[in-house]
Amino acid sequence: MVILDVLSISSSPPAQRARGAARVVARAAGAGSVIGELRQSGSSKLLFPRPRGRSLDVVTLNTAGGVTGGDEFELAAGAPDGAQMTISTQAAERIYRALPGQTGRVTTQLQLGDGARLNWLPQETILFDGAALRRSLRIDMAASAQLLACEALVFGRTAMQERVTDLWLRDRIDLFRDGQLVFFDRLRLDGDAQSCLTQAAVANGGLAMASVLWAAPDAETALGGIRADLPETAGAGSPVRDLVFVRIVASDSFELRKTLVPLLTRLSNDPLPRTWTI
Length: 278
Hints:
Elements: H1 6-10, E1 19-29, E2 32-42, E3 44-52, E4 55-62, E5 72-79, E6 84-89, E7 93-95, E8 104-112, E9 117-121, E10 125-127, E11 132-141, E12 146-155, E13 167-177, E14 180-191, H2 193-198, E15 208-215, H3 223-228, E16 234-237, E17 243-250, H4 253-268
């Protein structure tokens, strides 16, 4: 006779959660850069790492299809002395509704050696209603290195008439130069993001925004040209020497790209990765 365990049948099994970790390091080789180290596990994949010009191009992919509460993703990337690398994503990342009390975590660490160049160019992160996300980007770079980094957020898809009225978001960027913290940025949104973004002092109704960092020797010399090409809903400044920070706000992701793509193309001094054109 078989006796069923009623308690174990009736109790809800724990929800499955996605985990992903990846590490990629470029290595200078002659006039270009090649793979120096490559590791990936779980739902994090690194696609098509191959040289393009002087740079090693890498495309990241989340095979889980997005991030929800309890998911954890980590990426570490390095460009040692003299190496060059560009990292992009296959598509926009999606942050889905989370169960109460559960938060998705996305952590990125970038390291740049002397004379290195790294372009961190992920496509937009789309936040859906009910999402909960803690995201961080830490950059450690030598003073002689060059960094172009972009992080873009989209609060719902306007074409689908989506509204984000329930959101928990913690987003941070930390930039260290020769071991010293020279720049940090914090974004915190709780509750009804739609109402918060309508405020004039926040986004004045904009539902898409991007933060761009250009850190390089004499980076501030590009400030005048950058400002000349920005719309009224964007601004740029040089908070410290050798650094330019740009914030762009737009009505939706399409309008955001109208400003973002020319800006990134100009600062990268190279065509954007092909994934940005798909």
